C-alpha cells in the first residue's frame, strides 16, 4: 500500500490536483486521500484505490513477489543435498 500511496500522490501532483479535488471526484473525504497517500489509513476499500488508479490511466494488478531471500524450503533442500 505504501507504494500505491506514493504513486497516487505523484499522479495527483502531476495533474495539479489538491487532495480535496481528488476526494470530491471520487466521493471520498480529503482525509481518506491523505491516509491513502501517507499509508496511515487502517482500512481502505480496494475498489476505491482501483477507481483512483483507473482515473489516472493505471490498472491495479497482482504479481508474484521476487524474493531475494531464500525460502525455508529452499534452505532445507540445499542442506539436504549439500
UniProtKB/TrEMBL annotation:
Keyword flag Transport: no
Pfam families the UniProt entry points to: HTH_3 (PF01381)
Domain HTH cro/C1-type, chain residue ranges per copy: 8-63
This protein's UniProt keywords: DNA-binding
SMART domains tied to this protein: HTH_XRE
GO molecular function, one term: DNA binding
InterPro entries in UniProt: Cro/C1-type_HTH (IPR001387), Lambda_DNA-bd_dom_sf (IPR010982), TransReg_Diox_bact_type (IPR050807)
SUPFAM superfamilies hit by this protein: lambda repressor-like DNA-binding domains
GO cellular component, one term: cytosol
PANTHER family: HTH-TYPE TRANSCRIPTIONAL REGULATOR, METHYLPHOSPHONATE SYNTHASE
Protein's recorded name: Transcriptional regulator
